[in-house]
Amino acid sequence: MSHGTLLLVALLLPFIGSLAAGFLPTHARNTAAILAGSVAVAGIGISVWLYTSLADGAPVQFWLSWLPMLGLDFTLRLDGLAWLFALLIFGIGALVVLYARYYMSREDPVPRFFSFLLAFMGSMVGIVLSGNLIQLVFFWELTSLFSFLLIGYWHHTASARDGARMALTVTGTGGLCLLVGVLLIGRIVGSYDIDQVLESRDLIIQSDLYVPALVLILLGAFTKSAQFPFHFWLPHAMTAPTPVSAYLHSATMVKAGIFLLMRLWPVMSGTDAWFYLVVPAGLVTLLLGAFIAIFQQDLKGLLAYSTISHLGLITLLLGLGSPLAAVAAIFHTLNHAIFKASLFMAAGIIDHETGTRDLRKLSGLYRYMPITATLAMVAAAAMAGVPLVNGFISKEMFFAEAVAEHTGSLLDDSLPYWATLAGVFSVTYSLRFILGVFFGPPPVNLPHRPHEPAHWMRFPIELLVLICLLIGIVPSLTVGPLLATAVKGLLDATPPYYSLALWHGFNLPLMMSLIAMAGGVVLYLGLRRYLESGIEGPPILRDFKGQRIFEKVLATLSWQWARAGEATLGTRRLQPQMRIVITLAVVAALAPFIANGAVGTGDMPGTPLPPGFALLWLVGGICALGAAYQAKYHRFAALVLVGGAGLVTCVTFAWLSAPDLAVTQLLVEIVTTVLLLLGLRWLPKRIENVYPSRPPLKVLLRRYIDLTIACALGGLMAFLAYCLMTRPLTQSVSRFFVERAYSEGGGTNIINVILVDFRGFDTMGEIVVLCLAGLTVFALLRRFRPAPESIEQPEQQRIQHAYDVATPDRSPGDTVADYMLIPRLIMHWLFPVIAVMAVYLFMRGHDLPGGGFAAGITLSIAFVVQYMASGTRWVEDHLRVLPLRWMGMGLLTSCATGMGSWWFGYPFLTSHFQYVELPYIGKVPAASALVFDLGVFALVVGATVLILIALAHQSLRSSRAAQASEGGE
Amino acid sequence: MEIVLSIGIGLFTASGVWLLLRPRTYQVIIGLSLLSYAVNLFIFAMAGGGLRVDGPPILAPGGVGDPAKIADPIPQALVLTAIVIGFAMTALFLVVLLAARGRTGTDHVDGREPD
């Protein structure tokens, strides 16, 4: 397997694993954990395997053409930086999986947890491996989505839901900003390919779009990495199960923002804009996070704010813009991931074994869990930056960079003081964590009696703490080569000289460290009384909550403003909306005339007007106006009039050389009329004269406005139609169809050849729509509840029924049977006639007017006629119509015909034709398009019959309902 | 002929739009039917070469068609599709209308009688 393919495997494995875990039984805790663990271990294996190939500095690539016309390819790209992150994602991931196996309770749906976790892992890997910025944003948004699911895993608690929603809103919004920023970068560089972007530093920083792009990208990174003022979502995400916190807030989620800053660091940093946007954000986050962390009463809250603070530190380092600072940033990212993951896990163990994370309740746990306590102490020392642990070295590098000169501004000059202050804070909260939890008097009133956890639950912490110590004591032997690889990925040119040693002599950074440690202890002792009073949160800042502001903003935006906007601009009533839509249509139709000046009619000679045509349209116009006038009170009359208008349309088609349209229109007209007749029964009785005297002025005004709109649009349509008809259409593809219909489609009916051959794919879509409409009708009617006053039998049926019951020698239903005797007989006999007609229309369709549509509707009319003649019950006793099967077979036939051409190596729906000589009948066309048309035919029959039968059945249902209610009385 | 057909299309449109703006669902469905006739005729009338009385787009067997002698097939193919889809939409709308009537107890388009 090539190295590139391995990258693809590393990306896909977590997603495949996620899918597989999703299908496991709800309580398959071990299976799911083993699955997730193997995926993570395989990922580690691939990362380690690929390490050697990075030695020469060229990134490993995988490339797949995606949207070449837009210059977008699916590319995976592994350089040193991506490698380090991938290793972290898989490495910490594997440990978190092991930990979660013991942390998660037997009652939780654990496979779902692992499914989300793996999908999240895959999305993170996608971010770091993306070789294309758009692709990166895609995976970026995926991490937002899956972190939402992970944080909200215990969705039965409101705080989990709120925390998840807040994280999604903040990071998702940031992701959208990032997308726009990336699009700007793509516009500047002309490509989204990361390699190409990385070569275009000058182009980017000199562009006018540099600052907007930078701001947008930073918004994305800062929201993700919880930088001030977007930091507030992170503490609320602590409602997630602790393994999630350990994973998301140490090595992954929040590090995605850091990764993005690093990825674009070579091309975007080093400018004033970068310095003044990134450094203050990082500095404020560093100090504020550390300060608030001191005052947390929740163990995980303390760690969350500490995470924010450390992320601020890394951001600050990246903001400084010097290569050495970037090296320190990478190194601290690694160190922070290691010690923070172990601290979260330790907090989780404490929570798991004691039942609480509240620092006010916890105390003196050392005597119950000495090993965990020792491990936590080492990790906390790393967090505080104590020598011999990994955090110390990167913190020293940070101090050295803080002292170094960058821009010479006031901000730059004051950095050493701020850095030392942040060091003081971090020592204080680390002390608080350790002393508060593990020392002091034995705890009272704990939910559980504390004890050491299962060994394998503690194992991940042991391993991480061991790594902390190894890096802290012999940095150049352990982490040196890894760091060098990552730095090479970040800084293409010669990496700066840096030394990973424990002892650099007695210099300024060491002084700062000593001051920070001493200051931290003093501050802790000074604050002890305040902290023990049990107040949550720091003084002053306590009243200033990000969450509350967030919620207020959200409520204002999505509720108050939306409501106000709806109240002033919107309406829930249909009529004003229709008015607006139609008025817009009028405006849109008029706009070209206004823009280009008035356009007169064309000069093509008109067709002479036969008197019959004029008379026809006189009738048509009267029908239309009559229908418009009668539709309110005389529904049946309106239906007849609309039918008249339809017939006029139909005759017009026939007159003007469109026999196919005429046939189809006539048949559809019949079916539509039957359909509407069936529907009439369920409409309420109309009360005439709602307004006994004169309608109120408002109503009159509304009607005049509507009349004006209708007349305007009607006039406009007439004018447009006339203009179009009097000028020649010069360019059209018609010639192509006319000339090729016979030679390539094998039919003389051009319309049919277009439908089933040239544009067969459109027809395919059309029958699918028909199919969906039929199914929707069917589904809607299954749950149909008629209005109460429509349930009782119609008056005519009641009278007949009463007469039949009253007359001794008659049984109910006789009267209607007598009335319908002759029509019924004729209609029964008509069935085969109409069916033959349908077959005839179908067969001749390719050469003469007809075809699948017309034939299908004809056959459905044959069925409907039987329903009308004999009633639903009789027909269904004698005839089994299975419309759903007709539809299914029709769709399958059409698809199969279309796919048949693949067999011969042609594109979908390529047709083949020839004529076959049949005895007695003669030459018949045998085109594959005919089979396709057969599918169309079957589907049309099925859908039409389904719709009509579904409606017809309602009368049965209502009579049953009426009987039931009578029986009940 | 053109002028008569144009006026006819205009009348159908005007009646259809008037009904679309009415408050009762049945009026709207009738209006939609009228409007779809109008639109179908409008598309149909856009044929290249104008209206044609004696030239259905059907070829003599074995022949190659002459576009100058027969009606433009493209608008016809479009309208044929539109007729069938129009039928499906009418059916769907009718059922929605009935379901809304059953559920809300009124046939007003807003699902409740105006105050």
From TrEMBL, chain A:
What residue stretches are annotated with the MrpA C-terminal/MbhD domain? 622-685
* Domain annotation NADH-Ubiquinone oxidoreductase (complex I) chain 5 N-terminal: ranges: 63-114
- Stretches assigned to the Na+/H+ antiporter MnhB subunit-related protein domain: 822-945
Q: Which Pfam families would you find in this protein's record?
A: MbhD, MbhE, MnhB, Proton_antipo_M, Proton_antipo_N
Give every NADH:quinone oxidoreductase/Mrp antiporter transmembrane domain span.
130-407
Cell compartments where the protein resides: Cell membrane; Membrane
What is the membrane topology noted in the UniProt record heading this document?
A: Multi-pass membrane protein
Q: Where are the transmembrane segments?
A: 30-51, 82-101, 113-131, 137-154, 166-189, 209-234, 246-267, 273-295, 302-320, 326-350, 371-393, 417-440, 461-486, 506-527, 580-599, 611-629, 636-656, 662-683, 704-725, 763-781, 825-843, 849-869, 890-909, 929-951
Q: Which UniProt keywords apply?
A: Antiport, Cell membrane, Ion transport, Membrane, Transmembrane, Transmembrane helix, Transport
Q: Does the keyword Translocase apply?
A: no
Task: Fetch the InterPro entries from UniProt.
Answer: CPA3_Na-H_Antiporter_A (IPR050616), MnhB (IPR007182), MrpA_C/MbhD (IPR025383), MrpA_C/MbhE (IPR046806), ND/Mrp_TM (IPR001750), Proton_antipo_N (IPR001516)
Q: Which residues form the MrpA C-terminal/MbhE domain?
A: 701-798
Spell out the NCBIfam families in the cross-references. PRK12648.1 (NF009288)
Protein name stated in the entry: Multicomponent K+:H+ antiporter subunit A
What is the originating organism of this protein? Answer: Ancylobacter polymorphus
From TrEMBL, chain B:
Question: Which residues are listed as membrane-spanning?
Answer: 6-21, 28-47, 77-100
* Membrane topology category: Multi-pass membrane protein
Q: What are the record keywords, sorted?
A: Cell membrane, Membrane, Transmembrane, Transmembrane helix
- UniProt-annotated location(s): Cell membrane
Q: Which Pfam families match?
A: Oxidored_q2
Q: What is its main location?
A: membrane
Instruction: State the family it belongs to.
Output: Belongs to the CPA3 antiporters (TC 2.A.63) subunit C family.
PANTHER family listed in its UniProt record? ANTIPORTER SUBUNIT MNHC2-RELATED
Put simply, this protein is called Multicomponent K+:H+ antiporter subunit C
Organism lineage string: Bacteria, Pseudomonadati, Pseudomonadota, Alphaproteobacteria, Hyphomicrobiales
